[in-house]
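Running co-folding for alpha-L-fucopyranose.
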Amino acid sequence: MRPLSHVLVTIVLVAMTAEAAPPVRHEFGRLPDGRPVGATRLENAHGMSVTILDRGGVVQALHVPDADGRTADVVLGFDDLDAYRRAHPYVGATIGRFANRIAGARFVLEGRPWVLPPNEGAHQLHGGPEGFDQRVFEAVPSSGEEAPSVELRLTSPDGDQGFPGALELRVTFRLLADALRIDYEATSDAATLVNPTHHAYFNLAGEGDVREHELWIDAEAFTPVDAELIPTGEVRPVEGTAFDFRQPRRVGDRLGAHELRATRGYDHNYVLRGEGLRAVARLRDPESGRRLVVETDRPGLQLFTANGFDGRLLGKGGRAYGRHAGLCLETQVWPDAPNQPGFPSAVLRPGETFRSTTIFRFPSD
Ligand code: FUC
């Protein structure tokens, strides 16, 4: 017989934790060599759930209720592993080592030049031809004390995609009461670059496109780019341009502006105000009332409005993803930082631990 106090403690503990269901693991698919790829589903007591794939650290689905409790899947994605293995524009993926572009796929670090395999013309984009979006991470699910989570672990060997140093990366996805929190942690045995991000395409309506979504970005300036999307080094005020989201504006309002002609929409880095973990962007779908607040400790945010989508990309449930079917809010160090003297640093040195947090919050009030 257990003492009554023990039984009572057990009952209280069960009652306290009854809210957050433990993570559920399932097989999402198999790689050509037969290796299974797992998925972790996290769920909270407020009607939210998220599915995270071991391959690519992909957020495959993210269900969020609106004010009336109607739930929609607010990220673009695919139904099966084969679709993720085919070429696609980083849909829902964890990006590393270096998000966005490194001009000429080269940089100098501590006086030594490094040459990387390019994968966008002469440049390297999103970590190279075999970036972290294509890796199978080790998944460690946890019920957590307050929120269920899954930690994805990856060892990126010395020389991986041309980068120096063996990098140990941990990305923890945690489902809070009203948010998906992503924590990155990395160490390296040699000086290297680290600039991970998350490449979810959000659509708060769960259908159609995001032209009617209202967006606010806490940035007075952005980093203009050349024809190959490489920053010119300039930091330009958003005032009087199509880039100005200091007051909430419909995403579609200025998509036809001359400044966006070359990119056919937004594909630009914002210079975020402030420091530390702070709210940097807000997105709202007027139809459903669903809202997203992006909080991050990063200095930059890439707004990408799925400009090249043309309906040929078939997503979940066979839905054709057309132009502006979703938008990315990629928290990051500014693009090409390693080659731009005035830009924030992405250098990680041995003995240091890189830590960074981004929260995608869906306020319910
Ligand atoms: C964003 C953009 C790129 C690219 C990719 C799929 O990060 O900066 O231009 O199209 O997404």
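Result summary
Confidence is low (pLDDT under 50) at residues 7-18.
The chain has two helices and 29 strands.
Job closed.
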